TrEMBL record:
A molecular-function term among this protein's GO annotations: chitin binding
GO cellular component annotations of the record: extracellular region
Annotated TM spans: 20-37
UniProt keywords, alphabetically: Membrane, Transmembrane, Transmembrane helix
Species assigned in the record: Rhipicephalus microplus
InterPro entries hit by this protein: Chitin-bd_dom, Chitin-bd_dom_sf, Scoloptoxin-like
Membrane found in the keyword field: yes
Database matches in SUPFAM superfamilies: Invertebrate chitin-binding proteins
Residues in Chitin-binding type-2 domain copies: 61-127
Protein name (record): Putative cuticular protein
Length: 168
């Protein structure tokens, strides 16, 4: 006597209807196509659900300058910031990629430190464009991110330092 194969007992492919076989093959093919498709890029202002509870109505007016860096979104009270990335193309042109993020509740993007901070520890939002130039220092070797003139420019604007100056 021969011992029946376990597959013969459980894998009754021949008993599966033609329609069912067709559906299985079609599902596998669709899955393969979905996996093979290129992923879509994250769009500017593609923020998590619920952002409006923290930021309010989001204004989508910011566009990246043609340079790399981190940029406060003044139109959104600096509660949103953008990472801009300039990518050269094969034809010599460039593509500017923009990725948008929002700071945690009760914080704003501090353009001086390129971090989210409490408003009293940050340069005022309206002054953020005055510090966009700091992005040019990112990645430079043997260059301090803040030099004395950068600090001298920022300190009078930061509320916590203004309060400390009045107490002294």
């Amino acid at each position: 006597t021969s011992i029946p194969s376990p597959c013969l007992r459980f894998c009754h492919w021949s008993s599966i209807s033609f329609k069912m076989k067709y559906l299985i093959v079609a599902a596998i093919a669709l899955f393969a196509v979905a996996v093979a498709l290129p992923r879509s890029k994250r769009a500017a202002y593609e923020l998590p659900d619920g952002v409006e509870f923290i930021v309010g109505s989001v204004k989508t007016s910011f566009t990246c300058p043609a340079k790399n860096g981190y940029f406060a979104d003044v139109d959104n009270n600096c509660q949103i910031f953008h990472v801009c990335n300039v990518v050269p193309k094969e034809d010599g042109s460039t593509e500017v990629q923009q990725y948008s993020f929002f700071c945690g509740n009760q914080t704003v993007f501090n353009q001086f430190s390129l971090t989210c901070a409490f408003p009293e520890d940050a340069v005022p939002c309206r002054s953020s464009p005055d510090f966009f130039y700091l992005n040019d220092k990112i990645g430079q070797e043997k260059v301090f991110f803040h030099d004395d003139s950068d600090v001298a420019r920022a300190i009078p604007l930061i509320p916590r330092y203004q309060q400390a100056a009045y107490k002294a």
